[in-house]
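Consortium newsletter contribution from the modelling node. Members have asked for a concrete example of what our holo predictions look like. Here is one, prepared for the coenzyme A complex that several groups have been discussing at recent meetings.
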Amino acid sequence: MIDCEIREMQIPDIPAIMELEKQLFSSPWSRDMFLQEINSGFAFVLTAKETGKILGYICGLLLFDEFNITNVGVAPEQQKQGFGEAMLKFIIARLLSQKCFKFFLEVRESNAAAIALYQKFGFEILGKRKKYYNHPVEDALMLGMSFLQKQEEID
Ligand SMILES: CC(C)(COP(=O)(O)OP(=O)(O)OC[C@H]1O[C@@H](n2cnc3c(N)ncnc32)[C@H](O)[C@@H]1OP(=O)(O)O)[C@@H](O)C(=O)NCCC(=O)NCCS
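And here is the predicted structure:
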């Protein structure tokens, strides 16, 4: 397994990330969308330590006390090695340290790999957004997880 590290996403990273986007998604994000994420302060890349090559990325938006994971991807040839999990762990730890305990996201109903990843972290299905995606048209599942709720269950 490649030795990797996670660091903040920077503007010069965008072209390489957009190349991955094209491989991973049928409606890839634009440069402006990644610029927005960089400005929001919660955009990170996973890079190979030796070469600096970008192998994955994760970003999201903090709105008051809720964090919405807006995008996550791992290069096709590097999937199923724990990198998606490592990035999710990293961003959740970062938010918890900033006293944000509520996490949300949308995911294609057919995206079994991503759903399994989120459920491994304790995300639960909260509902559906009808025809949320295009290319192809598909419903989104809304997933959420609250560390506050977990704490209440323990108390
Ligand atoms: C979803 C994605 C980010 C997962 O990244 P990854 O690095 O391959 O995932 P990991 O190796 O960290 O796997 C962690 C867990 O996710 C689940 N998982 C990952 N890939 C899976 C697959 N192909 N099938 C089923 N479960 C899968 C498993 O529960 C796995 O845990 P395990 O290894 O103990 O079984 C990756 O598949 C991807 O980039 N997909 C395309 C982009 C995408 O769909 N992004 C999500 C948009 S909401």
